[in-house]
Amino acid sequence: MKVTGITRRWLLNSFGVILLILVTLILTLSYVIRDYVYNGIQTALSSRSDELTNVFADYGRKSPSEFSTAARNYVENFPNKESMELMVFNSNGKIIITSIGFAPDENQPMPDYHQALTSISGYGTWTGQLTSGEKVIAVTRVMRNNRGNFVGAIRYVSSLQEADKQVFLISGTLILAGLLIILFVIISNFYFMNSIITPIKEIGATAKRIAQGDFKARIQKVNDDEIGQLCDTINDMADELGAAEKMKNDFISSVSHELRTPLTAIKGWAETMQASENDKETFERGMGIIIRESERLSGIVEELLDFSRMQSGRITLTMDKIDILAELGEAVYMFSERAKTEHKFLLYEEPAMLSPVLGDINRLRQVFVNIIDNALKYTDEGGTISITASEAGGFIRVVISDNGCGIPAEHLPKVKRKFYKANQTVRGSGIGLALADEIMKLHSGSLEIESRENVGTAVTIFIPTLKQMEDAPETEAENEERNSEQNG
């Protein structure tokens, strides 16, 4: 099976590190155990050689002949003949007796004997192989008389064959334990990796379905961990995308209806005027309707173009010193006749004077027109739309309120989103408030909405004065903090 992705990275990284640590640990322990066993044997041999000082004392150290006699007696009575071999050297360096009773091989290497001869302590040790290939540890103790003359030496030799078997057995046990650990790690991590990879594959498959437009696809959350949080996030994303898709479709449907209505009126009256030969009254009435519907159609198209510019970040402002009071009054005047026709009351409390602002005259007028138009649309016959303007703290505050149907609490946080319409029964594209909010942000101002269902809605617009912009320009963060305090 081809191993790829996360599993491959785990094998190369985590498992590779674990394997390296285990191999290093086993090799180190094996080396330490071998040294421990070897050192134990060497210590035992050294302890035996240290006994010679007491065994021989003065007797056997006066002359080579006395040493030979004492050494033969020591070898014959040595209690550990089965575990180690003894060799006795005379003053000429010849082996005169061994504990095994056979003549020694003169060609065997004996570095410990030569080391003892040259050592001040008269002691030498060696670990190595004999000519037969057997591995041994040898310790030699040189004996000297009171005048310091060499009278002989005794060599202790112990085979390492059994010791190596013990070391091999222990090393094998360590290797087996290491293999069991690796097997356990593989099995446990297999289940662990499977618990990650399987959900990730499901998440990938579901995300692919969502990317292809299936916004009803959901991931089943199994565990309440990071994977579970990712599942929740993707499910929430699908909800948002589904809602956005629905808003987009509603927007297209709404815009189509908004465009079709004036086009139908224009076409209908054009056909009516064409059919009526010389009816001046019908002609004038038809031309009036055609002009109004054309203006309405032009307004819708312009709003769509503005929305497109907003989406691409291409809204540009022509900033100039503006009499905001005049622009607000002009917007109110535009809707005065419509309010009368619809039997609604449009009340405007015009202040004596307001400070000038720095802004785009057309864009600010567009904001006022949009908000007043919404207030009229959502207010029933006989309702009241109130408009006030004031100045405080370097900001112009314009409040446009109505006693219309209001906005339900669950819809209020979303009404400034693009495409969003809280009330689908009223005409409109659903982008007017989003556009107005963006325009106010570009003017370093803000647009806030307060509403209660079946009570009414109040839209508050804050615009910094020209003096405020020149003397103490605010950063975006400071502006948001001020807005929060004003809404607090």
TrEMBL record:
Coiled coil: none annotated. Residues 469-488 are annotated as: Disordered. It catalyses: ATP + protein L-histidine = ADP + protein N-phospho-L-histidine. GO terms for cellular component: plasma membrane. It is a multi-pass membrane protein. InterPro entries: HAMP_dom, HATPase_C_sf, HATPase_dom, His_kinase_dom, HisK_dim/P_dom, HisK_dim/P_sf, HssS/ArlS-like, Sig_transdc_His_kin-like_C. Keywords: ATP-binding, Cell membrane, Kinase, Membrane, Nucleotide-binding, Phosphoprotein, Transferase, Transmembrane, Transmembrane helix, Two-component regulatory system. Residues 194-246 form the HAMP domain. Its main location: membrane. GO terms for molecular function: ATP binding; phosphorelay sensor kinase activity. It is found in: Cell membrane. It is an enzyme of class 2 (transferase). The chain crosses the membrane at residues 12-33, 167-192. Its EC number is 2.7.13.3. This is histidine kinase. It comes from Caproiciproducens galactitolivorans.
